[in-house]
Amino acid sequence: MGEKTLDPCAIRADFPILAGRGPTSSHPLVYLDSASSAQRPQSVLDAMDDYYSTTHANVHRGVYAIAEEATRRYELARTTMGRFIGAPLPSKEIVFTKNGTEAINLVARTFGERLGSGDVIVLSEVEHHANLVPWLMLAESRGVELRYLPMREDFTIDLDGLDQVLEGAKLLAITGASNVLGNIPDLGPIIERAHALGALVLVDACQLVPHRRVNVAELDVDFLAATGHKMLGPTGIGVLYARAALLEAMPPFLGGGEMISDVRLDGFTTNEIPWKFEAGTPPIAEAIGLGAAVNYLESIGLEAIAEHERSLTSYAIAALTDAFKELTVFGPAPGGADRSGVISFAFGDVHPHDVAQILDEKGVCVRAGHHCAKPLMRALGVGATTRASLYLYNDEDDVDALIAGLGRVHELFA
Amino acid sequence: MPGLEDLYREIVLDHYRSPRNRGELPPPAHRAHGFNPLCGDEIVVYVDVEGGIISDVRISGQGCSISQSSASMMSAAIKGKSEADVRALVRRFKSMMSIEESTEDGEIEPTDPDSLGELAALQGVVKFPVRIKCATLAWNTLTQALDEIDQGIPSAE
Questions:
Q1: Whole domain around residue A12: which residue ranges?
Q2: What are the start-end ranges of the E strands in chain B?
Q3: Which residues of chain B have a CB within 8 Å of the CB of A412?
Q4: Tens of pLDDT, residues A347-387
């Protein structure tokens, strides 16, 4: 297997929304918001369309041919996703949800059901609300105590006091890659420490799985959440990986059809895993789309994608900070520990809404706001940031267009 | 395609750079806190109502040029006015922002932007619909404050 260098230009041609809309076109679309939601290649759209056009039927219950085929494609998407992240039992340990947020809520509501006052859950203060609010709700409803790993001045998560913070903890819930700062914690040693101290670990990998090879068996992680629409798949499909033994022990999440084995008027028994956690008709087309997205990512190669992002992120941060002395990046500098292509910044005193508005004039799409991380904004001392994020279809022309747009912000507001 | 000059007019930028009536008011002034659903803006409105007249107002918080300049212009426009006049002004401003709200009699008042003085400079916001929430944030927070005062609800902490 040779070293593949990624060609963003060729890749953009696979994405209908991006094709022919480079920075110099008549209606440019410089899409720098993949951390919020990525775009879909034609193969994903084709897989979903083909399913609807030729073989749509409800899954797991039909005897007729197209129902069998629909079921086969749906379950194949499950094992494809499972193998993509190295799950030991891909047909049992992947639960489909509607998004990453729901995957984490599933764990909070089921595994969390067993916790009570006196039990401790450890989080970090840089988490996305999806990996914060479900635990805050658990604290309110079950009296669980929450402890937080703080952020250091260099934007990494402070792990110095990890052992003390984890003392007596039942669960550590931590990001695999920050959606604001871009830092990628070194999960292996963290998970090892947590296990040694008796805590399970949940990783919010929504920003990690699209960009870096993840192997849940090697990491030894207990729960992992990912979401389809950030990894070139459609919206409406999320993934929870959890160890089979944990899924067997957890009570069901939502109740209804599919997740049962027997139902009487006075009670019910649950289905086997993973279907125990998939109530009602699942997002069949979306799962199939996710399977196609995984295949597309594998065809490009995650190592090539990671390499491309690293070098483009270095280029971007250097170019941005060289061009504008009023620009500060919130996040680790490239060249040290691995960091993703998420670049949050302040542009002098100019509010992110205004930065994003002016960039929009040139078709440059960035995100402005608190990025579903209000405690992190408070820790950074700001109300909001502007965020540009890079993915496999971005290149230096996109970064240059961002810089040109920021030049206009400087003219108008400096 | 609407241009940025529609949005970032001189008066708007002036109020953004030099916002009027910044600060806080001590109790018994009422305090109301508002967040923009288009996240990233935060407004605190302090308002003193004596004998049905807005005797004083201050604005604090942080946000984009549209939210801050709108808040600043609002503060200048409402000082010394009766509560009834201020509520009418809120309706006319929101109407300019394409938000129709009827009066208690069920009537929709048409608005001539020129009757709004400096506030007319924010007309361009309607061409950028997502920013309407920025422009109306202070006004919605003010309305919340007036409603709370009328209903005897104390300021939130």
A1: 8-40+301-413
A2: 30-35, 42-50, 53-62
A3: 4, 8
A4: 999 999 999 999 999 999 999 999 999 999 999 999 999 99
Q: Are A94 and A216 in contact (CB under 8 A)?
A: no
Complex ipTM? 0.91
Test mutation, B5, B17, B18, B39, chain A, max A CBs within 10 A: B39
* Residue A412 contacts B, CB cutoff 8 Å: yes
Task: Tell which of A128, A350, A353 to mutate to test the B interface (max B CBs under 10 Å).
Answer: A353
A383 with B66: Cβ contact below 8 A: no
Domains contained in chain B, CATH given: 4-150 (3.90.1010.10)
Mind giving me the DSSP string for A262-286?
A: EEETTEEEEPPTTGGG--SS--HHH
Q: Is A160 exposed, middle or buried (0-12, 13-18, 19+ CB in 10 A)?
A: exposed
Q: Are residues A336 and A251 in the same domain?
A: no
pLDDT tens for A12-34 read 999 999 999 998 899 999 999 99
Inform me whether the pLDDT recorded for B105 exceeds 80.
no
Residue A47, φ and ψ in degrees, nearest 5:
-65, -40
Please tell me if residue A411 touches chain B, with a CB cutoff of 8 Å.
Answer: no
Give residue-wise pLDDT tens across range A327-350. 999 999 998 899 999 999 999 999
**How far, in Å, CA of A122 to CA of A190, rounded?**
12
Q: What is the pLDDT of residues A35-75, one digit of tens each?
A: 999 999 999 999 999 999 999 999 998 899 999 999 999 99
